[in-house]
Amino acid sequence: MSKISRFFKGGGSASSKSRGGPSPQEALARLRETEEMLSKKQEYLETRIERELAAARQYGTRNKRAALQALKRKKRYEKQLSQIDGTLSTIEFQREALENSHTNTEVLKNMGYAAQAMKKVHENMDLNKIDDLMQDITEQQDVAQEISDAISNRATFGEEFDEEELMAELEELEQEELNKGMRDVRLPSVPSTSLPSRPGKLLTSHFMFLMIKACSSSRKRAEDEDEMKKLAAWAS
Question: Where do the record's region annotations for Disordered lie (predicted)?
């Protein structure tokens, strides 16, 4: 029985047989060992082919029989090498297929674990309770937004009054103040005595007094107007 036959038929461990077959890891390990063994056999055959070819050249026509025997051995070695190449290609294909199958198995296994974990997480979840919770959250968010809007809006105290009516009343007050100021102004009486031909010191003093009084009245009216404008600006 060849080494390869013993490897595949009798190489299995007792634990593998008791489980009904080798595990993917064990099978992959054995395939890699087989590839390594065949690769070494390839190197051996390539070396023998080179030796037989060198011998045939050495004998040449001087020893045709020995040269032909060397060439025949070279042909046998080349045939074995070709068979090993095909075997290695088959084993490599099988190993890659087994690796992919093992990878897919592990992926499916992990996906199954994840599905079980998700199922366990969702066991205590009620969709109706989740809908109620989301509705409560939405309502509270709406309430919070309304509160924020109410806080951020400009205060409207006193805006229930009509601004046009207030301005009309303010104009009336200003007119009354102006009328009152006009009534309080008294013009100086015309002197009964004739004025001198040249203004003297007395005329000059009287004229300065009238000018000061007129300026005071004008200043008072200007101050009253400023106060009324400030009042109107505060009311608006």
Answer: 1-26
Provide the domain limits for residue 103: 22-124
Write down the pLDDT at residue 230: 66
- Domain count for the chain: 2
3-state secondary structure the chain: CCHHHHHHHHCCCHHHHHCCCCCHHHHHHHHHHHHHHHHHHHHHHHHHHHHHHHHHHHHCCCCHHHHHHHHHHHHHHHHHHHHHHHHHHHHHHHHHHHHHHHHHHHHHHHHHHHHHHHHHHHCCCCHHHHHHHHHHHHHHHHHHHHHHHHHHCCCCCCCCCCHHHHHHHHHHHHHHHHHHHHHHCCCCCCCCCCCCCCCCHHHHHHHHHHHHHHHHHHHHHHHHHHHHHHHHHHHC
What's the pLDDT at 209?
59
52-99 pLDDT, tens digit per residue, is 999 888 888 888 888 899 899 999 999 999 999 999 999 999 999 988
Q: Judge whether 33 lies within some domain.
A: yes
Give me the residues of the chain with pLDDT under 70, please: 1-20, 154-161, 184-222, 224, 227-236
Count of beta carbons in the 10 Å neighbourhood of residue 189 = 6
Tell me the CB-side half-sphere exposure of residue 21, using CA atoms within 13 A.
4
